[in-house]
Every structure is written in C-alpha cells, then in structure tokens.
Amino acid sequence: MEIRLQFLAIVLAFVAIQAYSSSAGISSQTLTPPSPKAISDLKDAIVKGLGLQADLKVSGFDVRDARVGKAVAYEFAIEIGTKVIPVKLLEDVSRWDFVDLPFFHRMNGGNEAKEGNSLAEIGKKKDASALPELPPFQLAGPMELWIQDGDDMRLALPHDVEAGALKKVVLSDGAVVTVKGARSVSLRHPIELPLPFNRSVVGQPHLATGLLSLAQALRDAFKSDSQKPLLSLRIVGPTSLTSSPSTSPNDRLKLKRLAPGLVELSSSAPLPSSDSDDQSQPATLWPLTSVNGSNANLRGFEELLASVLGKKGEEKGSFKLVKAQVSAQTYVKMGFEVEKNLLEGQVNWDEYPEWRTRPQKGRAHFEVLARIEEGGKVVPERIVPVKPFEAQESVAESVVTGNVTMSTVETVQAAPVYFTL
C-alpha cells in the first residue's frame, strides 16, 4: 500500500510540472539559448562571402571553443602611375587564449529587446576597456598629429602640463615625443616619394638603406619647403604624449598654445639625420625614430616594396603612398562545419569499401580567423580548411575472411620445434 502511494505521488508531481510548463509557455525552443549576435553576424558574413549554396548547412561557431589573440596589422596602398596596389600584413599572434569576451553574451532578441539600450551601453564600456593598444613608439618633427578619442590624454614635457583637451599637436624640427596607449596610427594625406628605389649600399648590408633614404628625402623635403603641408598623422586613443629622453639633460620641449586644442612643441636640439657619418648614432627611420634601420621587420618591408615596384623602382620618377595604417587588433579563431546532402551520382563509390555504410551527408571542416572591431562586430579575414580527426577503424575478422566459418577452413599442422619445452 505504501509503495502505491509513493508511485501516485510521483505521478501527481509529474502532472503538475507538465501543467505548469504548458501554462508558462515553456517549450524546447525557448529553453535553447539564442546564438550571440556577433557569432550570427559572422556566420552570415561567411555564407555571403563564400557564396554558399542553399543546400549547404553551416554549423559550429561555439563560443566556448573560440580562441582570442592580439596582433599588429599593417595596411598600405601604393599608387604607381594609374595603378593602386593594396598591401595588408599581419604579425603572427604569439599567444591564443580562451577569453570570455563581453559581446559574446549579447543575444539576438529575447531579453536584449526588453532591457533597451542599457545592456548595449554596458557592453560598449566593457569592450572599450579591453581594446588592444600599440606598443609605445617615438615620433619626430617636422609633422602634425591629429588626436582622436584622446580626451584624457596626458602631456608631459617631462612634467605634466595642463593644456586642455588636445585635438592637434604640431612637432617642430627636432621635437621628439613618445606616444603611449594608441590604438592606431594612420596617414591623413597621400605623400609622394622619389624613385629610383636603391636598397643596397656597399658596407651596410644589414640596414634597410632603401627605406632610410626615402625617409631622409621625405624629411628634407618637408624641412626645405615651408609652403608644403606638413606630414600629417592621425592617432586614435593615445593616453599620453611625453618628451623622449635626449642626449642633453637641459633640452626640454617647449610648449606654445596656438589655439584651443592646438599646441606646438619645439626643441632647441636638432635631430641627427639618418645618413649622418656618426657611427655611434643608430640609423633610424624618420618619423618613427624608435624603429632601428637594422630591424628585421624593416628589411622585410623593404623587400616587399621592391617587389611591388618591380622594374618601375629602378627608373627615375616618383610614386605615391596613398594609405598607411598601423593598428592593434584583436582576433578570434573559431571552427565551423559545412554539411551537404549527398545525392545519387555525386560521389564515386568504386573506391569505397563495400562493408562500410555509405554516408548520406558530406562534411567539411574549416577554421575562420576574424577581426573584432569596436562595438563587438566580428569581420572574417581568412578561412582555411582543417583536416578533422580521423578515428582508426577496426574490422571484424569475419569480415576480413569473407564470413568464412572456421569449420570450413583447412587445418594446417605446423612443423614441430624440438627445442620448445
């Protein structure tokens, strides 16, 4: 009797749960969490970019398996005559980590629509705090810097100076500043560079002499022509501009306020040229004085530029640097799968073992490298096929022998071994 009462209580509890679920509108679809908006946008971009057919099914994109890394991206555009050649380079990501990014929790529909803009604002603040930054670098005049998103930027010469919110900083010849916390640096206006491009100098095979000579010619042109606009760069999100260490302890940058948000920094000590005979001074690439001419990456850039210019680089003339941008980027690496129904006649089954079950669907595995932009947008940049893990197959002995029973197999007597105990 007691067992029957227990069974009846379990049944009544089950019926109550079912009734509550139906009244609350709970279903298997609502229990399944929606996909993050960033991942769904990434999937749509891949399907649209690859031009996948309607009968193909794209799956995967599990945020729990997403690996995140940071690297520096270089983008250039060179104009030779009437031809513009874009170049994009990406440093190797030294480390991939499993990071819980904030925008991975922003879902499509559901509670996000009810909460309004509060969740979006919180997500933007979290994303902004996790934005990657460029390593500190030095810039030398004469040039002008346009500051973007630098309302809280510090100005130290070498002590902190109250100059208000800066939008533009003019560096005179000899003024060198160290930029920290910048997210990107880009060229605001195209510049014209002279040809021929000579990259080999006797006695200095370790230096990127071609780029050094171009930089020196560019600097001389800006110094000599007062009517020519200064070299103009845009810096996004710097946290500080400080005077770089100088050989003279008494040499400090002088600040001159030209207008609200506009200052000029000058120095009494001239900057040595890159072609100076003083061997104690390292050859630097103007205006990036923190880059040494013997840097291996700089030599790689020189070889790339020579290959892009081709025979045109040996002729007298000029070419334009239309675009130049260096930015710190966050990348995410994820795997996904493309599935397709196999129809009759699409697969050659002649090389397929007869004992194996013929699959009805074909699958291909890929890995996408995507760039994360501000606001949580994920933009795919590179897709490579991935060879999936192949499990070792085992075949029953009866299948190998053709289902021959042991009773029909001829008995073979092995020769006796007399030294066996």
Give the topology, please:
Elements: H1 2-24, H2 28-31, H3 37-50, E1 56-60, E2 67-80, E3 83-90, H4 111-115, H5 117-129, E4 137-140, E5 143-148, E6 154-156, E7 168-171, E8 176-180, E9 184-187, E10 191-195, H6 209-224, E11 231-236, E12 240-243, E13 254-259, E14 262-266, E15 284-285, E16 288-292, H7 296-309, E17 317-341, E18 361-372, E19 378-386, H8 397-400
Parallel strand pairs: 5-11, 6-12, 7-14
Antiparallel strand pairs: 1-17, 2-3, 2-17, 4-8, 5-7, 8-12, 9-11, 9-17, 10-17, 13-14, 15-16, 17-18, 18-19
The gist of it:
The chain is α+β, with helices and mostly antiparallel strands. Among the domains are: 222 residues, no CATH class; 31 residues, no CATH class. 22% of the residues lie in helices and 31% in strands.
Largest sheet report: 13 strands, mixed
Shape: elongated
Low-confidence segments: 3-33, 109-129
Strand content: 25-35%
Radius of gyration: 33 Å
Distance between the termini: 70 Å
- Mean pLDDT equals 76
Structural class: alpha+beta
Give helix and strand order, one letter per element, not per position: HHHEEEHHEEEEEEEHEEEEEEHEEEH
Question: Considering DSSP H and I runs of 4 or more, what fraction of the residues is helical?
Answer: 10-25%
- The number of strands is 19
> Which assembly state applies to the chains in this document?
single chain
Number of helices: 8
Region (Disordered): 266-288
Keywords: Signal
InterPro entries: TUNICAMYCIN_INDUCED_1
Signal peptide: 1-23
